[in-house]
Specification:
The protein is mainly alpha-helical and 413 residues long. It is 61% helix and 0% strand. α5 runs parallel beside α16, α8 packs antiparallel against α9 and α14 runs antiparallel to α15.
Length: 413
């Protein structure tokens, strides 16, 4: 059945078309960003360089979190990444990128299969997401978000199949490795998935304690001090709604604030708390609520580079697989394809154009949150093929009908 043409759908299609036009223009003018960094990297630069040095320090028993090295990864993440120290830095980096890419593609394909996506649509969606600058950025800098996306996809697919403990374990590992995603634990809580919630909480606690024990109390305390020591709030590439709000009212080193009133920074905190509340109330009970909560977590986090958007890519595949949310998924793909080079069109960093262009990252993340929250707030609608999902049937309150055999079905005596 053809989808109804509404003002909202027309607006989504128009914005998506504009985003694709902007993508073509920026690519022609500024080229493709970050991809070249993969070939040039020697394993000691960017985030991967920090991970590599921490891994080497872990095996040598030296300082994992030395001064001047802002490693925000918790001890368990350092331990899990420590095998990269067994190879030269450049080899470790290239293997890490290859593994991350393979794992992400596998997670996207698994998600598409779980929602019975059409082959053509799934292939188109995966290829489009692989072409996004956010993925190029996270791979070029050697970040872990492709692996975290696979963890979240595992949790979602297992939950959909009603494997609550497995889903909880996957959620717990993701939260332990990236504590800013802790709000995702509200997803099994508000849905009454008790076994999943317990498994997630136990896994998070166990992984956190194991990491602390393996690196030692001194390094664990050092991590806590680093984590509480502040984030690059004035970096215009930081797409967090929290830090963007603070940046707009606080003088910084790169661009002037819209209003020089640092005392108004608390408003940003109120906004993100309200945003999390709205997400839980509107989307928390839906199976798509996980992706809405992930997006809300990124907005509320003090640090969210646009590369963090990769963790939401399995959710985009789900939107593309469902007829009533397919336009939302296509809209997000169009936004995600826009390069990060828009601010570079202005040389004057105090100009209105430059300041406005720096808001593109937060706006894309906000639009992503709004899309998932809207999709998850539609009552009774499940993703993909509703009939094949035990978790979906349970969420709708359906029970499998008992089989009643008639006399003709009885075996002959």
């Amino acid at each position: 059945m053809a989808a109804r043409i509404t003002a909202g759908r027309v607006a989504l299609a128009a914005v998506a078309a504009c985003a694709l036009g902007l993508t073509a223009f920026l690519t022609a003018v500024r080229g493709v960003q970050y991809v070249g960094a993969i070939g040039r990297a020697n394993g000691t630069l960017y985030d991967f360089g920090i991970f590599y040095r921490s891994a080497v320090a872990f095996w040598r028993g030296t300082a994992i979190y030395p001064p001047g090295q802002p490693n925000f990864s918790p001890p368990i993440a350092v331990v899990l990444l420590s095998p990269i120290a067994g190879a030269p830095a450049v080899v470790a980096y290239r293997v890490f990128v290859a593994v991350s890419l393979v794992v992400l593609v596998a997670a996207l394909v698994w998600t598409a299969v779980a929602v019975h996506s059409r082959t053509g649509g799934a292939v188109a969606g995966v290829v489009a997401l692989l072409a996004t600058p956010a993925l190029a950025a996270t791979l070029g800098q050697g970040q872990v978000y492709a692996l975290l996306a696979a963890g979240l996809a595992t949790a979602w697919v297992l939950d959909r199949a009603d494997h609550q403990r497995g889903a909880g374990i996957a959620l717990g590992i993701v939260v332990a490795c990236k504590p800013v995603l802790a709000p995702v634990l509200l997803w099994p809580l508000v849905r009454g998935r008790r076994r999943e919630l317990v498994a997630a909480l136990v896994t998070t606690a166990a992984a956190t304690l194991a990491g602390a024990a393996l690196v030692g109390p001194a390094q664990t305390l050092r991590y806590v001090r680093v984590a509480l020591g502040g984030y690059p709030a004035h970096d215009v590439d930081n797409a967090s709604l929290l830090t963007t709000g603070i940046r707009l009212v606080t003088p910084g080193r790169e661009i002037p604030p819209l209003v020089d009133a640092p005392g108004l920074g608390w408003i940003a905190g109120v906004v993100v708390v309200a945003l999390l509340t709205v997400t839980v109330v509107r989307a928390g009970r839906h199976e798509l609520g996980l992706w809405a909560l992930v997006a809300a977590s990124l907005l509320a986090s003090p640090l969210a580079w646009r590369g963090y958007l990769v963790v939401l890519y399995p959710g985009v595949i789900v939107l593309l697989a469902t007829a009533r949310t397919r336009l939302l998924g296509a809209f997000l793909v169009a936004l995600l394809l826009v390069p990060h080079s828009l601010p570079s069109l202005w040389s004057d960093r105090a100009s209105t154009g430059y300041i406005t262009a720096t808001l593109l990252g937060p706006l894309v993340l906000l639009a992503t949150w709004a899309a998932f929250t809207e999709a998850a707030s539609r009552p009774g609608e499940m993703a993909g093929d509703q009939s094949s999902s035990p978790g979906a049937r349970r969420a709708r309150g359906e029970q499998r009908a008992p089989v009643v055999r008639g006399p003709s079905a009885l075996p002959d005596s």
